[in-house]
């Protein structure tokens, strides 16, 4: 499976939040600066993550983003699904079956 640029940059933004103490707010500008992204692009990625319920925004002058739950409980799958067009495992299982009718990993999908 290839990871798109959007997925990679979104993961990097999420890692910036994961590296801060839980509950500490990180501004979009700070995340964008550390990751070498434009603030607008970082904001777009963080909005996608917020829509998926992984982070939430804090409004105001000292606002920014914070994780909704401890970083240890986040999975790569849910982060990639939040940042990509593949929203369900059903889509993956029917799209990447190779020359089989059903994915060979269907019974023990990770």
What does this structure look like?
With 110 residues, the chain is mainly α. The longest helix has 14 residues, at 5-18. It is elongated. The chain has helices spanning 5-18, 28-35, 39-51, 76-83, 89-95; strands spanning 55-58, 64-67. Strand 1 and strand 2 form a beta hairpin. It has a two-stranded antiparallel sheet. Helix 1 packs across helix 2 (28-35). The protein is 45% helix and 7% strand. The mean pLDDT is 85. It is built from five helices and two strands; from the N terminus they run αααββαα.
List the defining traits of the structure above.
7% strand, 2 strands, mainly alpha, single chain, elongated
Give the integer mean of the pLDDT values: 85
Uncertain regions: pLDDT < 50 for 5+ in a row? Answer: none
Secondary-structure element order, N to C: HHHEEHH
**Alpha-beta content class:** mainly alpha
From the alpha-carbon coordinates, what is the Rg to the nearest angstrom?
16 Å
How are strands sequenced across the largest beta sheet?
1-2
Q: Please bin the fraction of helical residues.
A: 40-55%
Could you give a quick summary of the protein structure above?
This protein has 110 residues and is mainly alpha-helical. The chain has helices at residues 5-18, 28-35, 39-51, 76-83, 89-95; strands at 55-58, 64-67. It is 45% helix and 7% strand.
């Amino acid at each position: 499976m290839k990871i798109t640029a959007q997925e990679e940059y979104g993961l990097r933004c999420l890692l910036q939040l994961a590296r801060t103490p839980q509950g500490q707010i990180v501004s979009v500008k700070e995340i964008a600066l550390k990751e070498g992204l434009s603030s607008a692009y970082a904001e777009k990625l963080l909005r996608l993550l917020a829509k998926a319920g992984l982070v939430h925004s804090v409004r105001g002058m000292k606002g920014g983003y914070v994780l909704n739950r401890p970083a240890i409980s986040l999975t790569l799958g849910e982060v990639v699904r939040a940042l990509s067009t593949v929203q369900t495992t059903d889509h993956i299982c029917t799209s990447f079956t190779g020359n089989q009718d059903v994915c060979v990993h269907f019974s023990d999908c990770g």
